[in-house]
Amino acid sequence: MARPTTGKHTSATTRLILGCVLLLVLALGADLLWASSSRFYSSLSISNNWSAGDSPSTTIILPQQQRPPSPPHKAKGKTVKDKNQGVTPERVLSATFADLPAPELKWEKMADAPVPRLDGAAIQIKNLLYVFAGYGTIDYVHSHVDIYNFTDNTWGGRFDMPKEMAHSHLGMATDGRYIYVVTGQYGPQCRGPTARTFVLDTETKKWQDMPPLPVPRYAPATQLWRGRLHVMGGSKENRHTPGLEHWSLAVKDGKPLENEWRNEIPIPHGGPHRACIVVNNHLYVIGGQEGDFMAKPGSPIFKCSRREEVVYGDVYMLDDEMKWKTLTPMPKPDSHIEFAWIVVNNSIVIVGGTTEKHPVTKKMVLVGEVFQFNLDTQKWSVIGKLPFRVKTTLVGFWEGWLYFTSGQRDKGPHDPSPKKVIGEMWRTKLKLAS
């Protein structure tokens, strides 16, 4: 028997109504889910902090979860109040974990340098400190020399560098009149290096070209030793890979005696930002790191991009047989100290720098100690604290006073990560125990 037509019509209408209701419910659910998701992501606060030479960091603040009120709780001796619900415990990790115990020093602030600079270079000749190049900001580099006179504690005598000369990460050494300038980074951000080398006559303020380095390098260890200009280590052309090569060039009275650099024994540990010192007819290479910032691929301005770095405190000495010897390491790893040293009373004194990154935040940690390496005992000691932590300091010594200027200082007593590029000059009376 055939079913009535009206029954079929009623059944189809019912199914249509139910389908519409179901679609409406699904749409409302999706809308609610989207709205909830939008509120969540709009509550994320993302900040990018970057200054010249600093580690770019991204901080993400998540919305606080709703939690029932709880009784007051003490976290490491203090009560921490929750802005939304009750009182909650706070996990406290000291940001100054890397600071070493050190005696206080009395520091006196002197006249600021004409410009702030980071990754600059400095050479002292008698009572004058010649301060070269460096970043003003991550997007601006200096191309001139400022001079500080220790006798009357004044700045003056500014003059320009050659246009082709590198602006940061320089290798530099002096014979007491001539200053030899080797390779380095040309331009701001993380631009490429140059192999060009120059010599400055500090009496006439005239520059001359010298034979270029076989390949460019960033911040190689550089010194004059036994009539030859030695250049070793540094970072390779990509700014990150450590170089082990070691070259030398015979020089005298500001002139090269050879047309090409000579290969020497490779350095045991490559990398940039190390102190290189000649004393008692031995050559020392101290501290440094492997790895550095690199240019971001495809960036038209060679924007600096963070890469993994390993900081070390190794100490090597090149002896009479032209063989490297390993000596007592520094009290802690230290880098960015290529112009942060002096030699006084048969000791090497090193000021500030950077050490291993913070174990939680992974940010760069600046150094606030003054170290002494006694060449008689071959032992290290921590002899004082700086007024703040600072890297790439430019250091001098005159009539018992230890001076430092420029670099990048910390964010404050409780935050050792880099912040402000400075031009400040400070000094303290230095008394070294034998």
UniProtKB/TrEMBL annotation:
<dbReference type="InterPro" id="IPR053256">
    <property type="entry name" value="Kelch_repeat-containing"/>
</dbReference>
<dbReference type="InterPro" id="IPR006652">
    <property type="entry name" value="Kelch_1"/>
</dbReference>
<dbReference type="InterPro" id="IPR015915">
    <property type="entry name" value="Kelch-typ_b-propeller"/>
</dbReference>
<protein>
    <recommendedName>
        <fullName>Kelch repeat-containing protein</fullName>
    </recommendedName>
</protein>
<dbReference type="Pfam" id="PF24681">
    <property type="entry name" value="Kelch_KLHDC2_KLHL20_DRC7"/>
</dbReference>
<feature type="region of interest" description="Disordered">
    <location>
        <begin position="57"/>
        <end position="85"/>
    </location>
</feature>
